[in-house]
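Tutorial handout. Part one gives the primary structure; part two gives the three-dimensional structure as tokens.
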Amino acid sequence: MADNNNGAFIWSIANLLRGVYKQADYGKVVLPFTILRRLDAVLEPTKDAVLAEYEKRKDGSIPVEKLLPSISQHDFYNTSLYTVDKLGGDPANVRANLLNYIDGFSANVRDIFDRYDFPAQIARLDENDLLYLVVQK
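Part two.
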């Protein structure tokens, strides 16, 4: 049953993209947003601890790139104040806030979004008044 719900959910996003994207290009939006949501969920339990440690150490002698993965309990982390849920709270600035959120990831995760050319897709969605709708989904 969950597979049917997931499929319907993905098609609801695809319906938003219709007309702006060709069907073959839906993955340029759906895949990076799926990855973003999954990473957000994985980091959620340690988010506050990572942010607190980052604030204490960002100007210190120990590179945060060495310290924060152990606090996040993963090989990656995020230092942005945003989460996927918080992005929907500011419709007027969703593009800037989403880019800030992506920039807050460690380099190994930012590389994934760069390979998807995600900032360009964010711009395209925003220019077509779809970004906030997709972020809300």
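Part three, for discussion. Residues 2-136 form one domain. The chain has one domain: 2-136.
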